[in-house]
Design a protein that fits this description.
Elements lengths: L1 H8 L3 H8 L4 E9 L5 E6 L8 E2 L2 E3 L6 H13 L3 E11 L4 E10 L13 E7 L10 H8 L6 H10 L8 H8 L12
Parallel strand pairs: 1-6
Antiparallel strand pairs: 1-4, 2-3, 2-7, 5-6
């Protein structure tokens, strides 16, 4: 029933998400990889049928570190544990939203997999040469991007980058030589 209501909301989905979350929503995604290089993809119940397979993701809670959002969303959606690595991508999203993508590594295997049935239909590890067709193009691109750090160091990044300044999206943009995104104005 929730799925039908969400899909029926159509253009109002962004407004509903905006009203239910911080006034400037931040969607956070974890590009989760297993030790053998396969990626963890979830079949999302609330996503469009032609793009249902994608990485674990969700909205950051007010005041929450984005790395903690990745850990929380993966645990809520799958019951699995991850170590968060570096910021992989930062983009403006639909309307009043920013999209943040972090590299992450599975801590252990998928033996403890428990799906959150209201949001997730299926979860699997996919090799990069066998990604599902029903996947957002950006997620496909991010899955195939080479890691910035060796897998062995991925966990070390999250332990050393404890201060928000150490992993600030603004610092990451400055490091890349990109100007910061303009500030969004609240809706009328």
């Amino acid at each position: 029933m929730l799925v039908r209501a969400w899909r029926a909301a159509g253009p109002l989905q962004g407004w509903l998400a905006w009203r239910l979350n911080a006034r400037f929503g931040v969607g956070v995604t974890g590009i989760v990889r297993a030790a053998d290089g396969r990626v963890l993809l979830l079949r999302h119940r609330l996503w469009p049928d032609d793009e249902q397979w994608g990485f674990p993701s969700g909205f950051a809670k007010r005041g929450e570190r984005f790395q903690d959002t990745v850990v929380r969303e993966v645990r809520e959606e799958t019951g699995l544990t991850v170590r968060v690595g570096r910021l992989a991508e930062l983009r403006s999203g639909l309307r009043y939203r920013v999209e943040v993508y972090y590299e992450a590594a599975l801590a252990g295997g998928i033996d403890g997999l428990v799906l959150e049935k209201r949001e997730i239909l299926d979860a699997r590890l996919f090799p990069l040469d066998a990604l599902p067709a029903a996947m957002p193009p950006l997620h496909r691109e991010l899955a195939r991007r080479p890691l910035a750090l060796p897998r062995a160091r991925l966990g070390a990044v999250s332990r050393t980058a404890r201060s928000p300044a150490a992993v600030s999206p603004h610092r990451e943009l400055a490091r890349r030589g990109e100007p910061p995104a303009p500030r969004a104005r609240p809706p009328p």
